[in-house]
Amino acid sequence: MDKYLNESPIISLKNIHKSFGDKKVLKGIDFDLHKCEVHALLGENGAGKTTLMNILYGMFNQSDGEIYIKGEKIINNSPKKAISLGIGMVHQHFMLVEPFSVTENIILGYEGKKF
């Protein structure tokens, strides 16, 4: 895994800000994800974890900052765009479909490439 740290991140969030009206929720968030890395995002309720993921998934637009996927700056303004870039999201209140495995449940929403 360490060999990938010398490569450009596959996802990079730079100076992400998000406000809802006068309420500043995210202030200057930077985050890099390299190939084969796994991260956990921890914080109290209301800390902005879901807001940050919703920005990455295209549900919200950031108030300021930039998003890069594989080194390319993107405007991610919809979940459809996020999915086309290979970004998916499993929501916190996700209900599993029996008798599918966790992996099968995750790929249920993946449409794949259209021909």
Automatic annotation (TrEMBL):
Keywords, in A-Z order: ATP-binding, Nucleotide-binding
Gene3D superfamilies per the UniProt record, alphabetical: P-loop containing nucleotide triphosphate hydrolases
Domain ABC transporter, first and last residues per copy: 26-105
Pfam families per record: ABC_tran
Entry GO MF terms: ATP binding; ATP hydrolysis activity
Domain of life: Bacteria
InterPro entries on file: ABC_carbohydrate_import_ATPase, ABC_transporter-like_ATP-bd, P-loop_NTPase
PANTHER family, per database record: CARBOHYDRATE TRANSPORT ATP-BINDING PROTEIN MG119-RELATED, GUANOSINE IMPORT ATP-BINDING PROTEIN NUPO
Protein name: ABC transporter domain-containing protein
